[in-house]
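**User:** Once you have settled down, spend some time on the protein underneath, comparing sequence with structure tokens, and judge whether sequence predicts the tokens.
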Amino acid sequence: MSCSSCSSTKNGSPRGCQNNGTCGSDSCNKLTVFDWLENMRPPQGEEDCSFVEVRFKNSRKEFFRFPKELKPQAGSLVITKVDRGYDLGKVTLAGALVAVQMKRKKIKAESDKIGTILRLANQEEIDIWQASRAKEAEVQKRARELAIALKLNMKLSDVEFQGDGKKATFYYSAGKRVDFRQLIKDMARAFSIRIEMRQIGLREEASRLGGIGSCGRELCCSTWLTDFRSVNTAAARYQQLSLNPQKLAGQCGRLKCCLNYELEVYRSALKSFPKAEVKLQTEKGIGVFQKMDIFKGLIWYAYKGEWTTWHKLTVSAVKEIIEKNKANQKVTSLEAYVEEEVKEEKNKLFDSGVGQDSLKRFDPPRSHSKRNKRRRFESKAKK
């Protein structure tokens, strides 16, 4: 399933493309599925799966039915039937695992979404497909120039040519409805092909363009994430994050998808915490919730009118106070339940060498000539 850049060298050592994500050779990408049933034959009496999974330009995958005389394998280039022409794609999955993927995506064998494979691609068709792919960047640049000339408020993010080179799909994003009828006429005249405009969301646009996130790694949407789920500000509130749009927003301008990764863990942990709206009744005053530390199981409360002084309590202590309040009993004060900090004793048997020495030990020694000249000048000025 790897490309030539990821294969081994002549000595047997792994080479690797060092990309850790999608690569330019279009073989290692986020849509690739590892076929762990590749070397296993179906049980006796059962026929092989008559469906395969075909990928087109690392942006979409579809399931296709192939004739009995044709048995495409993973990596084969096949010709698929489309309206008014044909398309060329690469088989990414074949065998019994295709049926598992279809069941997971809820696609039945008699569904209209399943296409038909006509034949394996010959060399002439492969050359036409590669030539079309090679000019996608130039066509995209020219299309952007045409859109700017028409003053259209839209952004063309990607272009995908059909396998026969007779049709191109332009993916764009726009905040409002755009009238691109004149743009289609200009592009059809400039490129002499059929044009299809397809609007995509900002998250899908970021996945196509790629980039580096605030964590220092490649964007999840452009490397492995294929399911774009909605993210709302409640995910940030559950994780006690500051509602700062500049920090919570990704390159797409929407909330970061990684806010959903640990959300269920926070939700399950917060079930053991009392609600923030509950106030603690004490003889000294009413305790109001201020903040919590989910990992350490600590909650901070402050008396009404004494907002600058916070008292740190454990979850068990807060629950004990709440139970007493429910029984119409007031505790003496929050200070009686404050969690005492236990200072860890430093290990005297080990001392850090960096901590003992000064950080200036790496600096070059400074000459005292300038300091002596300054002193002489100051003494002369006093005289």
Observations:
- The first strand starts at residue 51 and ends at 56.
- Residues 342-346 have pLDDT under 50 and may be disordered.
